[in-house]
Amino acid sequence: MRLRNIPGAREAVAASPFCVQDTHAYRGRWRELFPGKERLYLEIGCGKGRFLIETAALRPTDAFLGMERFSTVLYKALRKLPEPAPDNLRFLLLDAEILTEIFDRGEVDGIYLNFSDPWPKERHRERRLTSARFLRRYREILSEDAVIEFKTDNRSLFDFSLEEAEREGCRILQKTFDLHADEAMREGNVMTEYEERFVSAGHPVCKYVIQVS
Ligand code: SAM
Questions:
Q1: Is residue 165 a contact partner of residue 207, using CB atoms and an 8 Å limit?
Q2: Using a 6 Å cutoff on CB, does residue 91 contact ligand 1?
Q3: What is the mean pLDDT of the chain?
Q4: In angstroms, what CA-CA distances link 162 with 102, 177, 193?
Q5: How far is the CA of 46 from the centre of ligand 1 (A)?
Q6: Using CB atoms within 10 A of its CB, is residue 156 exposed (0-12), middle (13-18) or buried (19+)?
Q7: Which CATH class is domain 105-213?
Q8: 1-102 and 105-213 have identical folds
Q9: What share of the chain has pLDDT > 70, as a percent?
Q10: Which atom of ligand 1 is nearest to the CA of 46?
């Protein structure tokens, strides 16, 4: 994602009541932020927030956290929040590298990875959010039967991700190399900003749904 400096973005994110500031303090207590909600889902690399804002509106009984590492990007997500803002959605300005410092064992009921950065250089493979290194972290914070849903337009990243999932002993529940041509898997699909762009340009989108436990 090309990043442009946006004056005031960092300050606006730091002052937003919809961006959790003291993230470490919530470890083991995230549900307290969402009284009465059933399950807690996390999108890592939520970008400008379209997917999560729409998903939170469609599923008002569940709670959603959007994690993004750049304040300029998160600022745009915060500006997209409808009025009144949903009571089941909050954002985190964080790098997924510190995921297990932020969430306790079994605290998250599902993870969404949408159009994650491909890190094409071999020496950066461990930084890919679908690498075995990250899958092991997800295993620590996910509840029993929780699933990870991953979408990408990048076929080599997808092939790598399937291999890593298999290597880690994950169960591949569903997979497709062309989501929008797959009647069963596209049902209820919520588009992301990147997805809209790729689909409009005629690029197929790959998706898997896996279980790490
Ligand atoms: N999910 C959005 C979509 O589909 O439109 C954005 C996709 S964009 C290619 C990837 C996003 O993930 C970027 O906003 C990037 O800053 C964020 N990201 C990448 N690595 C991350 C990490 N380790 N922790 C948090 N966010 C990350």
A1: no
A2: no
A3: 97
A4: 26, 11, 24
A5: 6
A6: exposed
A7: alpha beta
A8: yes
A9: 99
A10: 1
Domain range annotation of the chain: 1-102, 105-213
Q: Is position 117 annotated as part of the catalytic site?
A: yes
How far is it between the farthest Cα atoms of the chain?
A: 45
Atom of ligand 1 nearest to the CA of 45: 12
Question: Does residue 168 surpass a pLDDT of 70?
Answer: yes
User: Tens digit of pLDDT for each residue in 21-80?
Assistant: 999 999 999 999 999 999 999 999 999 999 999 999 999 999 999 999 999 999 999 999
CATH class of 1-102: alpha beta
Against a cut of 0.70, is the pTM above it? yes
Ligand 1 pocket member 96 (CB < 6 A): yes
- Compute the distance from residue 68 Cα to the ligand 1 centre, in Å: 6
CA angle 101, 139, 89 (to 5 degrees): 60
pLDDT for the residue numbered 5: 86
Q: Name which residue sits closest to atom 15 of ligand 1, judged by CA.
A: 45
Compute, in angstroms, the gap from residue 149 CA to the centroid of ligand 1.
Answer: 14
